[in-house]
Automatic annotation (TrEMBL):
SUPFAM superfamilies in alphabetical order: SET domain
InterPro entries found in the cross-reference section: Rubisco_LSMT_subst-bd_sf (IPR036464), SET_dom_sf (IPR046341), SETD3_SETD6_MTase (IPR050600)
GO BP of this protein: methylation
Name under which the protein is recorded: SET domain-containing protein
Keyword Plastid: no
GO molecular function, a single term: protein-lysine N-methyltransferase activity
Annotated keywords: Methyltransferase, S-adenosyl-L-methionine, Transferase
Species this protein is from: Austropuccinia psidii MF-1
Keyword Flavoprotein annotated: no
Amino acid sequence: MLTAPSASRRIGRSAEPCNTSDLGRWLADNGGSFHPSLSFSAPNEDKSSESNLMGTCVLASGPVDKNQVLVSCTIQTAITRQSSLDKIERLFNQIPMDKPGPNPCQNFTSAWLDRQVISLYLILTKLSIKAESLQSNPLQELVKHDETPARRLVFDLFSFHKLYVSLLPPLQELTTPLFWNEAEVEKLRFTDLYPSIMERKQLWTTEYEEMMENIRRMSSVLYDYMSRYLSCGDYLWACTIITSRSFSSSLLENLNIPKVSSQTTLQKPNSIANLDLNTSSKEPTPILLPGVDTLNHKRGTKVEWRLTKSHSGLHKVQIIALEDTINLGDQVFNNYGAKPTAELILGYGFALDEQDWMAQNSQDADILNPDDFYTIKLAKPQESKVYSPLIKSICDRFKHKTFYHFITKVQPIPPMLLAQLRVLVTSSQEEVDKLTQCLGDLLKAQTSSKTFTENFLTSMPPKLTWDNELNCLDCLRSMLDFKLEELNRINHFSDQESDWKQVRNSVKRMIQIYRQGQHDILFNALERLESLISLATEQAVADGFAISFDED
C-alpha cells in the first residue's frame, strides 16, 4: 500500500497467488479471502520499474470481471483502538507493577490518540514475534536470560496478528521522509512539506519518549524488556504503517450492505461500535484491515466498499471491482480518494506521476496533480500596526485556521484570500467607513466565529476603493513572487551529480514531482493575478482614479 507502480506488468514465475500465500491462508482461516486470480508481484522481479523497488503490488493472473470481490477481511481481524486496548489492558493487569493501582491501562492511555494506541499494539506484536524467534533459538542461554514475565505475557497476548505484522514492510523499506537521509530531506527546504516533516518527526519522537518513561515508572519489568528490543525507530515504523495503510472508520459507517439471501436484508448498524470497532469518541478513527490494505492507490480507480454478513454471522469488509474488466497482467488498485502530492509523500512514501492522472482525461495535457495545492497564510496584524481598531475587531472574529488559504489550479486566487487582504491593507478613513457600512451589523451580532466567517465573504463588496484594491493585489503579487523565488532557490531538476549523489533515484523523483507541482501552482496564480491587476488598473483609470507608475 506504500506505492503506486505502473499499471501493467508481466506476470513472472516468482509471482505468488494471493489466496495461497501465508497472508491469504491466514485471511481464509479467519473468514476473509482474495480473488483467485490475484497474485503478489515479487519486489525485485521487474528491475526496470523503479517504483517496484518501493513495495510489493497485486497483479491479475487472470481476468477479473466487474462486480467481483477483489479482497475481503472480517471485522474480527481488523486492528482498531478498542481491539488494541483490550490486549494492552490485559498486559497491564497481569504484568508486575512497581506501584500497583486500579485501572493502570486507563490511566496510561486515556489521553492517547488512536494512532498511539494502535502503534503500541503493533510494536508489542513485533516483540511477540521476537519472543517466538528467541524461543526457537538454539542458544539456550539467550532464552533463559530472556525468560521474564514480560516476554511470556507479550508472547501470549499479542500473537493473533503476528503473521500480518511480520509481512508488513520493514523499517528499512519505508520511503516516507521520516526515513530519508539528511541530504534527501534538505532538498525539500523552502517548501511547506519541509516543516511538516520536522514537526511530525519531533512529535512522534516525543510520544515514544513519553510512552517509555511512563512505562518505566509503572513497570520496570515491562520497561526493561521493551527497551532491550525496541527503539524510537520501531515507534516511527508503527506510526508510518498506520498513516500509510489504515482506513478511516467513517468509511465503514456508510458502506453498502447488500442482501445475504433473497429473503433477508441486513440492517445497517447504527454505529460502527456495533461491529466491535469501538472508538473513544464519535470522531473517525484509523483502522487496519489486513489483506484489504495490500492494494496500491490509483486516482480514479473504480471500486466499491461493501459490508456484508455471512450466514455464520461474521461481518466482512469487501472491495468490489467496478472496472469493466481487469486484464491479465494489470495491476489491481484501490482508490484512497483525492490526495495531494504532499500527503502522498509524507503519509505513504510515493508521488503520482503525470501518467497516473492524465490517462483519465486525454484532453488534459497538464502534468499538475489536480489535487495539489499551495498554502498561503495571512498574518494577523498587531494592534499597534493597524490603521483602525476596526481592523483588529474584524480579524479577531476569525479563527486561526481561516487565515490559511489554499491555492489550486482550479482556484488560483481564492476569494476569501482577497477579501481578508482588503481588510488587512486598509489605510484610509474612507476604507474604514466602507468596512463599517458592510460589516457593521455582522460585527454587532453575537454569532460564532464559524457563522461570522460564512457571512463575511458575502458581506464584503468586490472592492472598497481603487487604492485599496490595487494595494491588495500588489501585496498579493509581492507575496507570491517571494514564495516562488524562495521555492526556486533549489534547482530540483539539476543533473549535476554533486547535487544529487546522496539522493536515491526514487526519492529524487518524488522531490521533483512535488516541487514542480508547487512551482506550477504559484506560476499559474501569478499569471491569473497579473490579469486581475491589468483589469483593475484599466477600470480604475476609466473611473478617473489617478495612478502613478514607478519609473523602473
